[in-house]
């Protein structure tokens, strides 16, 4: 592979004693491919962008979340109610509702319009580390340090069941539609009528005990169990049969669900933990604990690196159309805008 294309930015000019600053920087030295911006907030753990691209949400170690304007970083709402760190946050498909999970073992649903907490789910015995939304959002999935993955009914604020009990922390979860060639098994009991959209779905679990587990979301039946080189931190689906999972020792495994015994490929760029993976166009975006964040595209013979984080871990990546957002331990949300790729 040829030398990577590095996107450089001078973020020091964006730092200020104010809580929120947006600085938009044109990258003319890269032939107009990228423009980038960032705004300063407290240390953040996760972020997401609404389906329409108008709003962003970010979670913090101070127990709060913030809703901001994606175009300029302007603060719109502050969501408060968790105790301790908020580990994960994401918008529902409507773009008007937010799902969050925290170290207080609570899963919450919020209105992005008035900052009210409309639902609180309780049942986990340890901090919630990741979540996934099933279809349009009548059901959601959570993964916890207590080793369980649970399916929740948003309408009735109740737990529909423990999908998996791993005996080891679940660091990442992902839900994806299964290819017709994949046998997900049949449920041992009739699914609840409150389960909506779980049929033909796979649930992927990135586990602390070096195992990557896949099972049928509705059937609860195992599909495969893959043992990696170290703890799995994150996972995502690329298609109905291809997936990615990242480990603590820097490996990115690409697996085919139809033949999961041996990986399709293993990508290793550094020994730093892989913290975030996101399907992007015909490739993916990955971020690591050494501050690296990069785009891999099948039709390009080079890797595009998104720089600016220095050596601080980049915890999460989100996209909307040609805009890429990252959050980092240095307290910055960075925006990279692709004008051409």
TrEMBL record:
<keyword id="KW-0677">Repeat</keyword>
<keyword id="KW-0853">WD repeat</keyword>
<feature type="repeat" description="WD">
    <location>
        <begin position="121"/>
        <end position="153"/>
    </location>
</feature>
<protein>
    <recommendedName>
        <fullName>Proteasomal ATPase-associated factor 1</fullName>
    </recommendedName>
</protein>
<feature type="repeat" description="WD">
    <location>
        <begin position="79"/>
        <end position="120"/>
    </location>
</feature>
<dbReference type="GO" id="GO:0000502">
    <property type="term" value="C:proteasome complex"/>
</dbReference>
<dbReference type="InterPro" id="IPR001680">
    <property type="entry name" value="WD40_rpt"/>
</dbReference>
<dbReference type="Pfam" id="PF00400">
    <property type="entry name" value="WD40"/>
</dbReference>
<dbReference type="GO" id="GO:0005829">
    <property type="term" value="C:cytosol"/>
</dbReference>
<comment type="subunit">
    <text>Interacts with PSMC1, PSMC2, PSMC3, PSMC4, PSMC5 and PSMC6. Interacts with SUPT6H.</text>
</comment>
<dbReference type="InterPro" id="IPR036322">
    <property type="entry name" value="WD40_repeat_dom_sf"/>
</dbReference>
<keyword id="KW-0647">Proteasome</keyword>
<dbReference type="InterPro" id="IPR015943">
    <property type="entry name" value="WD40/YVTN_repeat-like_dom_sf"/>
</dbReference>
<dbReference type="InterPro" id="IPR051179">
    <property type="entry name" value="WD_repeat_multifunction"/>
</dbReference>
<dbReference type="InterPro" id="IPR020472">
    <property type="entry name" value="WD40_PAC1"/>
</dbReference>
<feature type="repeat" description="WD">
    <location>
        <begin position="44"/>
        <end position="78"/>
    </location>
</feature>
<comment type="similarity">
    <text>Belongs to the WD repeat PAAF1/RPN14 family.</text>
</comment>
């Amino acid at each position: 592979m040829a030398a990577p294309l590095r996107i450089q930015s001078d973020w020091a000019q964006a730092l200020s004693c104010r809580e929120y600053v947006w600085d938009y920087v044109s990258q003319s030295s890269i032939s107009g491919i990228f423009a980038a911006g960032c705004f300063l907030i407290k240390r953040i753990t996760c972020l997401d962008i609404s389906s329409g691209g108008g709003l962003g949400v970010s979670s913090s170690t101070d127990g709060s979340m913030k809703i901001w304007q994606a175009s300029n970083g302007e603060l719109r709402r502050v969501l408060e109610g968790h105790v301790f760190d908020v580990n994960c946050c994401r918008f529902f498909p409507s773009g008007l509702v937010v799902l969050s999970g925290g170290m207080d073992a609570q899963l919450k649903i919020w209105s992005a319009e008035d900052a009210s907490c409309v639902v609180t789910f309780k049942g986990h015995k340890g901090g919630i580390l990741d979540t996934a939304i099933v279809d349009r959002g009548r059901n959601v999935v959570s993964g916890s340090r207590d080793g369980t993955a649970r399916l929740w009914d948003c309408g009735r604020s109740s737990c529909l069941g423990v999908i998996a009990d791993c005996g080891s922390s679940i660091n990442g979860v992902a839900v994806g539609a299964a290819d017709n060639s994949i046998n997900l098994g049949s449920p041992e009991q009739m699914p609840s009528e409150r389960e909506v959209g779980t049929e033909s779905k796979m649930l992927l679990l990135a586990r602390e005990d070096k195992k990557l587990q896949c099972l049928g979301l509705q059937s609860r039946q195992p599909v495969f169990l893959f043992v990696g080189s170290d703890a799995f931190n994150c996972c995502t689906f690329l298609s109905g049969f291809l997936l990615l999972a990242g480990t603590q020792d820097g490996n990115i495994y690409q697996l085919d669900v139809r033949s999961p015994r041996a990986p399709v490929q293993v990508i290793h760029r550094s020994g730093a933990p892989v913290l975030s993976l996101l399907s992007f166009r015909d490739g993916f975006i990955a971020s690591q604990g050494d501050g690296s964040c990069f785009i891999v595209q099948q039709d390009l013979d080079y890797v595009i690196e998104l720089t600016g984080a220095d050596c601080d871990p980049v915890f999460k990546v989100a996209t909307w159309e040609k805009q890429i957002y990252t959050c980092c331990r240095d307290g910055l949300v960075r925006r990279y805008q692709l004008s051409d790729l």
